[in-house]
């Protein structure tokens, strides 16, 4: 039976568990980088961590098969408890002065691997925990909670880790994973039916079926392209914004920090707005609004010459993102058959993940040859092409 209200017992427990887990992630994002710098003093080591964390995403299509063939509650709990155990082991090794770089590498790779399963499993399970009419609000609350946790957690982590040491990030995030896993035991996930087991021949057949679905479902393919392009535009922020802050705005690291924070604050506000709107506008209208806002704000960034102008533009860029992200996820949750949703979300995640290194490399080359403004104008043009394609295909009725 479908829940009658959004803030029912199951969704509330899930949301609180995720919120405190995301807060722990904010600690780890900052703490593990400082920890490795303290251990090695090497920037190469730090970049290797990022590569190891993201490499497992190439296995997204296969992970999607596992998600579709597994009990979602069991998979979510197991993933949380394993990741929590990995971080707590690393913490114990550190305080006993036995932690090595290779152990951190292995730990980060395991975290990245289980994240590949966790995201799709959560996206598949969420629609079963809330009323159909509240799905958009639920997705907005989950994404908004993540943004809130990252904004608050980053500031809080700086204070706590400065006082107690960067190794505390391992402890805090490890405990947050364990807490989330234990809380999920109390969530009443609906019983599932369908394919189970991991027979090699059947798994390969499911993998082929999932990839074939992308070729046949044109709307899903277009959604994947849109998600890739958006991530490609937003991905190189860490490459472009430092140079933008220094060379164009005439600021320093503080200006860069303000720009990054403005994006986060804008995304949080956008999730609040989208949650408030709910299904009063169609998903096609929501995506159209987000795309148009992105075109305008990227063009505005190309024209910005002051910190205030840039902050308004970057904040609006963040604000536009949930109009697209939430609508895309909600649409897939509602339109893709349950039996294949894991493969769709996991494959989508893999494709989108590839956008970051590709776009970062392109951005780096562009910044060597052209002024920063050219990058923003080129990005605006790319999003404009997507917006025109979207409006030509779906208009604002879907």
Chart the SSEs and their pairings.
Elements: H1 9-40, H2 43-54, H3 60-68, H4 72-95, H5 101-125, H6 135-164, H7 168-184, H8 200-216, H9 218-234, H10 237-248, H11 253-277, H12 283-303, H13 307-335, H14 341-369, H15 372-394
Tell me what you see in this structure.
- With 398 residues, the protein is mainly alpha-helical.
- It folds into two domains: 9-198, MFS general substrate transporter like domains (Growth Hormone, Chain: A, Up-down Bundle); 207-394, Growth Hormone, Chain: A, CATH 1.20.1250.
- It is built from 15 helices and no strands.
- The chain has helices spanning 9-40, 43-54, 60-68, 72-95, 101-125, 135-164, 168-184, 200-216, 218-234, 237-248, 253-277, 283-303, 307-335, 341-369, 372-394.
- Helix 4 (72-95) packs antiparallel against helix 5 (101-125) and helix 4 (72-95) packs antiparallel against helix 7 (168-184).
- The model has no long low-confidence stretch (mean pLDDT 86).
In short:
The chain is an all-alpha fold and 398 residues long. Helices cover 81% and strands 0% of the residues.
Largest sheet: none
**Class derived from helix and strand content:** mainly alpha
| Rg on CA atoms, Å | 21 Å
- Morphology: globular
Topology, number of strands: 0
Which residues form runs of ≥5 with pLDDT under 50?
A: none
């Amino acid at each position: 039976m479908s829940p009658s209200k959004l803030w029912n017992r199951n969704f509330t427990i899930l949301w609180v568990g995720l919120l405190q887990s995301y807060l722990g992630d904010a600690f780890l994002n900052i703490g593990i980088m400082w920890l490795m710098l303290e251990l090695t003093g090497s920037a190469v080591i730090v970049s290797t961590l990022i590569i190891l964390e993201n490499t497992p995403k190439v296995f997204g299509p296969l992970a999607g098969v596992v998600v579709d063939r597994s009990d979602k509650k069991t998979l979510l709990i197991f993933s949380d408890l394993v990741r929590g155990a990995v971080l707590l082991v690393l913490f114990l090794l550190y305080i006993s002065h036995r932690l090595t770089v290779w152990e951190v590498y292995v730990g980060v790779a395991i975290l990245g691997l289980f994240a590949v399963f966790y995201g799709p499993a959560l996206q598949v399970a969420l629609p079963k925990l809330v009323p159909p009419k509240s799905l958009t609000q639920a997705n907005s609350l989950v994404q908004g909670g993540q943004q809130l946790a990252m904004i608050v957690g980053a500031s809080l982590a700086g204070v706590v880790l400065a006082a107690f040491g960067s190794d505390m990030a391992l402890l805090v995030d490890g405990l947050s994973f364990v807490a989330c896993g234990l809380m999920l035991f109390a969530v009443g996930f609906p019983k599932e039916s369908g394919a189970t087991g991991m027979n090699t021949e059947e798994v390969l057949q499911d993998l082929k079926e999932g990839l074939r679905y992308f070729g046949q479902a044109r709307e899903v393919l277009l959604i994947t392209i849109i998600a890739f392009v958006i991530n490609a535009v937003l991905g190189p922020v860490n490459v472009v914004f430092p140079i933008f802050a220094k060379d164009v705005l005439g600021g320093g690291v503080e200006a860069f920090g303000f720009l990054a924070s403005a994006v986060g604050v804008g995304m949080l506000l956008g999730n609040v707005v989208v949650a408030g709107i709910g299904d009063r506008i169609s998903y096609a209208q929501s995506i159209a609004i987000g795309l148009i806002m992105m075109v305008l704000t990227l063009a505005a960034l190309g024209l910005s010459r002051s910190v205030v102008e840039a902050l308004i533009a970057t904040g609006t860029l963040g604000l536009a993102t949930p109009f697209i992200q939430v609508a895309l996820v909600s649409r897939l949750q509602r339109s893709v058959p349950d039996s294949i949703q894991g493969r769709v979300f996991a494959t989508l995640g893999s494709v989108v993940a590839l956008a970051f290194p590709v776009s970062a490399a392109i951005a780096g080359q562009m910044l060597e040859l052209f002024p920063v403004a050219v990058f923003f104008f080129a990005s605006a043009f790319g999003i404009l092409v997507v917006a025109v394609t979207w409006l030509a295909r779906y208009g604002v009725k879907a």
